């Protein structure tokens, strides 16, 4: 029996793992093997199986730094510790990191250490990404400065230019130079300088090439062989209604400028209800304008289908002034100067409604009657009227202004009677009174401008809205 116990004890001793206390150890590493002058590098000292340490980390050569460390673990047991030291390079060459001292394990084993690690310090790369010269077709751009990166040159009618650039630092590189094609209009070219250290700076040259080609993309006429349109070159949407017996229509159009082209005309087959056709005018310079003709064809029962009658407006805005739009107010008065056009934006409540704005371009001095037409899908028209009074140069110089004639909608269509002479006298007096009122208002406006020394038009009367100049 004793023999069995002895054999068991020997077996257990043989197979059980034996506990061996590891010796303390130290290593050193750096985050970079090579840096540029002026940059920093960090050395890391790792102590393993260590319970106490008394070491010194130093950096010498192209940098000078040091750190002394001495301590023990709180429980006296071995552990792993990390210590770092960062040094900034002050010259080219090498930084030598060294670690000296002794470390002790938890079992009491002590070890002396002496470690070194080198880092190479090279010349700092240049950050100069500027140009010393920038030329177009062999001539330095006007008012060149290495710190000025944007240049707008005079108009150039040629087909190309040659851009050359010289970096201030020979170690920098330049891209974006060479022969550049000039297109009509604005041409923008970037020249990028990349410094030795990779930093970049971009110079920009803008050259405008005048475009002698016509931009006129207006139609001179637009007709259909069955039905009619009231054509205006500035009105781009038209609605035509035809009977069910009309199976097709022919759209004809002529351009205002002989160098323009037109597409979308010719014979068009009609289906019941809505038919929409686009006529596209392309100017010589490529600018396009689209005219739309919507044709409503009755079905066999004489109906146009379920077409929307909504010709109401959500909003009307005029760029530059507050007209205080109200859907129930049909007439608005606007006083302007130094502009040939009022920019009107109309938002209908029904996206199928068509918008047409008449007489809002090429404004003449005096009264201009601008009409906004909103046509529902079924053809019903809703109109808003703008009396745009443009102050001409004569008015600014306080010369006599002829006032626009005021018409009474309630009497316009009345037949003449025995009192027609009296009405004419009354109308004449009213005409003169309006003229005098306008002259007084304009004089007041000029006096206010002189006092305020502003370019913004004053509001001489509550009956007119005023555009503010940019």
Low confidence ranges = 12-16, 395-423, 451-462, 466-470
**Total discrete domains:** 4
**Relative helix content:** 10-25%
The general outline is elongated
| Residue fraction in strands | over 45%
Q: What is the tally of beta strands?
A: 30
What is the typical, i.e. mean, pLDDT? 84
Largest β sheet strand count, sense and barrel closure = 5 strands, mixed
Strand line-up in the sheet with most strands: 2-8-7-4-5
The helix-and-strand class reads: mainly beta
Whole-angstrom Rg: 44 Å
Query: How large is the count of helical segments?
Result: 3
Q: How far do the termini sit from each other?
A: 116 Å
Question: What keywords describe this structure?
Answer:
single chain; 470 residues; Immunoglobulin-like; 4 domains; 30 strands; 11% helix; disordered C terminus
Please describe the topology of this protein.
Blueprint lengths: L1 H14 L9 E6 L3 E3 L3 E11 L1 E10 L3 E8 L6 E10 L4 E12 L5 E13 L8 E6 L2 E2 L9 E3 L7 E8 L5 E3 L2 E4 L3 E10 L5 E10 L9 E6 L12 E6 L5 E8 L5 E3 L2 E4 L3 E10 L5 E10 L15 E6 L12 E7 L6 E5 L5 E5 L7 E10 L5 E11 L1 H4 L23 H33 L12 E2 L4
Parallel strand pairs: 2-8, 11-16, 18-23, 25-29, 25-30
Antiparallel strand pairs: 1-3, 3-6, 4-5, 4-7, 7-8, 9-10, 9-12, 12-14, 13-15, 15-16, 17-19, 19-21, 20-22, 22-23, 24-26, 27-28, 28-29
